[in-house]
Every structure is written in structure tokens, then in C-alpha cells.
Amino acid sequence: MNLFLKSLGVKVAKAITKEFIEPHSDEDTWSEATTKDYEANAKTQYALTQALNDDDLSRVINCKYAYEVWNDLIITHEGPSQVKRSKVDLLHCQYENFYILENESIDKMLTQFTKITNGLSFLGDTIDNDQKIRKVIRALFKAWEVKATTLKELNDRERWISLTLLKISKPMRWK
Known about the structure:
It is built from nine helices and no strands. With 175 residues, the protein is mainly α.
């Protein structure tokens, strides 16, 4: 959603980060900056409400400003910080205890793993790709052990080759 709001303009994207305080005077007496802020708030609020389903829309329909809509949606979908922390802890537990089941396909395993890592990423706790690769390799059952060892060795070899190429490509100093 942030990307979409940015495409509508910088002021529109920033309308969710600060509360708009509507002046109590007549609109004709507003400064140009206040008018632009008001328009950005209206565009943002419109964009947000158009993207919502009926349930979410009913939660925010009475919000007066885009900032309120955005904050209500965050609380609705992420929950308060305590709930968010609990979700992160639960996903970390699932990540740490992740393994492939005996009759599970690789596709199904990777789909489940992606759901866990995307959930962590969505909640602001990202895991780098090297850690993900190592975790997936460790999660494979014994029948995959030879392939997992090969994958580890290839990954280590690629790193070694990359480091070697970096050393070779450094400019030489002439004496």
C-alpha cells in the first residue's frame, strides 16, 4: 500500500505518518500549504478506503483523517505491540522447529517455510537468505542428506570462488 500511495505523490504518502489538523476557518482563507495538505489527506483516505473489504471498511468509515484510518488498520491487522511481539515469538518458534514431514513434498515444505519467513518479514523481523538456505537444508530428512551435503559444499565453494575473484580483481600496485 505504501508503494501505491507514493505513486500518488509524496504528500499523499506522508499523510499516513502525521495527523492532519483541519483549520476551523473558512476554506477560502486557508494557505496554499494547508490546502495541499487537505487534498493529500483526502486522496490518501480515498485510496485507503477503496482498497478495503467490507469488514475493514466498517471499522474505519467514521475516521475523519487518513492518519486515523491507517492507525486503525495497523491495530486491526497487527494488533497492539504486545500482540505483535507474541506473533513474532510464535513465528520464531515455528522457524526454529521447522522440518519436512516424512510424506511432505518439497513444494509444500517450501510454501510453509515461505509463509513463516514472510510473516516475520511483515512484522519487521527479517532473516537473510543465507540463514534461510541453511535452515531449509537442515530441515530435510535423512533421505536428502547426500543432496544437502552437496548443496552446502556448493554454497561454500561459490563463496570461496567469489572471495578468490575479489582478491584477484584488486588492482596491482606497481613499484
